[in-house]
Specification:
This protein has helices at about 20-35, 55-65, 80-95, 105-115, 185-195, 205-220, 250-255, 260-270, 280-290, 305-315, 320-330, 340-355, 360-365, 380-385, 390-400, 410-425, 430-440, 450-470, and strands at about 5-10, 40-45, 75, 95-100, 140-145, 150-155, 160-165, 175, 200-205, 225-230, 235, 300. It is mainly α. The strands form five sheets. Strands 1-2-3 form a three-stranded parallel β-sheet. β9, α6 and β10 form a beta-alpha-beta unit. It is elongated, with a radius of gyration of 32 Å.
Length: about 475
């Protein structure tokens, strides 16, 4: 019988969900779904000083936005602290761990001495073989693991290959603090074991921890999970991706107007490949994802590539869904979207979504559909409107549009061409520009003839009259 793959996503609720975390979640989810396994969700909330419950909601929202589901209930690490302590005492009982009675002052002095002598600043193991009867009566001990002192240890990693360290680099780290609180290192291993996690897919900044965590597995006689340590994500300049590079969290990208399917496709390719395929759908990703094609070298974040992917998915997206997703962006622009405006935007959506790389751009591009008179004109459209010929052009269009029925794009364009022949030496742009400025208040928009048709005869005439009134 083959083993059911069980992965986990274990974020710490100390802030927004970083892009690196999002990619880790995606890879765990894809591997679980690809193999017909499960992805579990654990909140690593043992650090009570930094723990903030609202960040749990932020992380759950981020996972939902990416379209990733998980199996079972969310597990709180903090709520399992009694079990973690139980394992520390079990290691103590079997001689794999020991009580250490050093005071903070003694530990500081030890570190300073090691620094001065140019040695590693590890704990010097002074209580490893001492009899607890020598212990100071009033001092609560910590429990430390007994790390091997000689030889070497190897981690077999599905991405990094075999990685070996000399055991002298491993310290007798603390499992249980003197106040009985388990350390992160202990909690992670106990939770992974108890939850049945057999594939640990995480960032390679955890690789050093793996050697230490394996000591707990060995000490308890538990099977090691399969490890896959993912390369870091770097900013375009080669430094670790952070806020100074721009958006660094999933929430930031949602707020900038990226689509979740574009983000998932982008994150998938940021460290994994399938031949030369760039555009990979969710179904393809599940069918193709494996650990063998995760690259070992760090990936650089490329904003232009993300923009291009997003533009691709914008074109594919359902029009109603795009309108729905764009609504918060219209609100940010201070615009109300009623049924009339909805109808206008949907009528233009086929063109809008081929022009806009993000939902924010789509909202800006179509904001004029939601404007009501009086509205403002941007600097470029004002320049156009104040041109000496504009008043004549707009007045002529106003008169010619009045009787036009049906008020459709081709007929509107024909009138504009006729007016261009009469007033602008046949240059249609010299008519289209003032018409666009008048109807939209901007210098760039979708096809102005189609836009006029969508606005309809009555609204188009009202807007032309309004623009003319501004010119007086």
């Amino acid at each position: 019988m083959s083993m059911t793959v069980i992965t986990r996503f274990p974020p710490s609720p100390t802030g927004r969900m970083h892009i690196g975390n999002a990619r880790t979640a995606l890879y765990n989810w894809l591997y679980a779904r690809h193999t017909g396994g499960k992805m579990l969700f654990r909140i690593e909330d043992t650090d009570r000083d930094r723990y903030q419950p609202e960040f749990v909601d932020v992380i759950i929202d981020g996972i939902r936005w990416l379209g990733l589901d998980y199996d079972g209930d969310i597990v709180s690490q903090y709520e399992r602290r009694a079990r973690h302590a139980e394992v520390a005492h079990e290691l103590l009982r079997t001689g794999k761990a020991y009580y250490c009675y050093c005071s903070p002052e003694e530990l500081d002095a030890m570190r300073e001495k090691a620094k001065a002598e140019g040695r590693p600043t590890f704990y010097d193991r002074r209580w490893r073989e001492r009899d607890p009867s020598e212990a100071p009566k009033d001092r609560k001990p910590v429990i430390r693991i007994k790390a091997p002192i000689e030889g070497s240890s190897t981690v077999h990693d599905r991405v990094q290959g075999d990685v070996t360290v000399n055991n002298e680099q491993l310290d007798d780290f603390i499992l249980l603090r003197s106040d009985g609180v388990p350390t992160y290192m202990l909690a992670v291993v106990v939770d992974d074991h108890d939850m049945g996690v057999n594939h640990v897919i995480r960032g390679d900044d955890h690789l050093n921890n793996t050697f230490r965590q394996n000591l707990i597995y060995h000490g308890m006689g538990w099977d090691l999970p399969v490890y896959a340590h993912l390369p870091l994500i770097l900013g375009p300049d080669g430094a670790k991706l952070s806020k100074r590079h721009g958006a660094a969290s999933v929430e930031d990208y949602a707020e900038l107007g990226y689509l979740p399917e574009a983000m998932c496709n982008y994150l998938l390719r940021l460290g994994w490949s399938h031949g030369n395929d760039e555009i990979i759908s969710r179904d393809q990703a599940v069918a193709w994802f494996d650990l063998d094609h995760v690259v070992r070298s760090p990936a650089r974040f490329d904003y232009a590539r993300l923009d291009n992917l997003n533009a691709h998915y914008m074109k594919l997206a359902d029009n109603w869904r795009l309108l729905d997703l764009a609504k918060p962006f219209y609100q940010k622009l201070g615009l109300a979207i009623d049924a009339t405006v909805e109808h206008r935007i949907l009528s233009a959506m086929d063109e809008l979504k081929t022009r806009s790389k993000t939902l924010a751009a789509l909202a800006e591009d179509s904001a004029f559909f939601a404007k009501t008179i009086p509205y403002n004109f941007d600097t470029k459209s004002l320049e156009t409107l104040t041109h000496p010929d504009t008043k004549t052009i707009l007045s002529t269009l106003l008169e010619r549009f009045k009787p036009l029925n049906p008020f459709v794009s081709d007929a509107i364009q024909k009138i504009c061409k006729d007016v261009a022949d009469e007033l602008a030496g046949g240059k249609l742009g010299k008519i289209g520009m003032p018409l666009r400025a008048a109807l939209t208040g901007t210098a760039a928009s979708p096809s102005i003839f189609h836009a006029a048709e969508i606005l309809g005869n009555k609204e188009t005439l009202s807007r032309l009259q309004f623009a003319l009134s501004v010119l007086h």
